[in-house]
Amino acid sequence: MIPPKRPRGGAAHVTAPRPYRHDPSFRRSLALFRAFLHEQDDPDACYALLARDAVDQVEAYDGPVAGRTVVDVGGGSGYFTEEFRRRGAQAFLFEPDLAELGEKPPDSAVVADGYLLPLRDGIADVTFSSNVLEHVADPETFLSELARVTRPGGLIYVSFTNWLSPWGGHEWAPWHYFGAERARARYLRRTGRPAKHTLGENLFAVHIGSTLRQVRARDDVTVVSARSRYWPFLAETVVKAPGIREFATWNLLLILRRCPT
User: Fold this and answer.
1) Are 126 and 62 spatial neighbours (Cβ–Cβ below 8 Å)?
2) Where would I find the Methyltransferase type domain in this sequence (predicted)?
3) Own/partner pairs for 10-17, CB < 8 Å, 24+ apart?
4) What whole-number distance in Å separates Cα of residue 258 and Cα of residue 244?
């Protein structure tokens, strides 16, 4: 279980955003792209790099994570949790799928549904969810649960691959533009094995415009930043262009701040 939070005293801790010198940049985006190309044959290197990059982003908006309580929701086999711990955070992994946890999940990993986390209100300084939202049937309820477990003034990091992104169909992209069933059938013909993801079962068509409207209408969070997670330039600008953003953003990153109760 997550230990009781140590008293901080005074007002909730809120650190002003600090410059992140390497994000966005072509060099960073190229490094991530090259890592993604080897996701299947070298997943450790791919996800270790992605974890370092994601925690860099958290610290860019919220300061060092050392000594902070971090809740990683849907973090798979724990790359993100381990990186938070490496930097001194008290990080805990909550993952609903035993298969995703792998053979050696982080210590104290909990099998739990992101719709109903076994945590009290406001326990986390940082609530983190990387590439999970497109895998839940009810994103609004999922976001509500992330907000619930985050303390007032705490940070919520949410990224997801939107459906109309070139990678929206995951392993059967970009053929998802021609229909999900056709794309899955092509994947089976090409690889000889069924695709991991099925639209409407473990992959859902989540869009940037509707997600932004839902988040901005909430009274429990404020939007600090809505940006492309991997884009090498104008990362926030591309998200402001309706229509175009659904294709060009690739992966939406939302940095949210939990409102005072």
Assistant:
1) yes
2) 71-158
3) 11/153, 12/151, 12/152, 12/153, 12/154, 12/260, 13/125, 13/153, 14/153, 14/257, 15/62, 15/63, 17/60, 17/61, 17/62, 17/224
4) 29
| CA distance linking residue 153 with residue 9, whole number of Å | 14
How far is the C-alpha of 69 from the C-alpha of 9, rounded, in Å? 16
Handedness of CA 98, 105, 157, 7 (dihedral sign): positive
Least Cα distance to 224 among 7, 3, 17 occurs for 17
Of 17-26, 76-85, 190-199, the least confident: 17-26
Answer whether 118's CB lies under 8 Å from 110's CB. Answer: yes
End-to-end CA, the chain: 24
Other C-beta atoms closer than 10 Å to the C-beta of 180 total 21
Position 185, amino acid = A
- Give the orientation angle of helix 208-216 with respect to helix 139-148, to 10 degrees: 40
- Please return the burial class of 194, using the count of CB atoms within 10 Å of its CB with bins 0-12, 13-18 and 19+: exposed
What mean pLDDT value characterizes the chain? Answer: 91
3-class SS of residue 157:
strand
| Residue 28 tokens, joined | 């960073």
Helical H runs in the chain?
26-37, 43-62, 79-86, 98-101, 139-148, 180-191, 208-216, 244-248
Q: Do 173 and 197 touch, CB atoms closer than 8 A?
A: no
What structural domains and CATH numbers belong to the chain? 26-163+205-258 (3.40.50.150), 167-203 (no CATH)
What was the pLDDT predicted at 103? 81
| Ranges 33-42, 48-57, 122-131, 185-194: which has the least confidence | 33-42
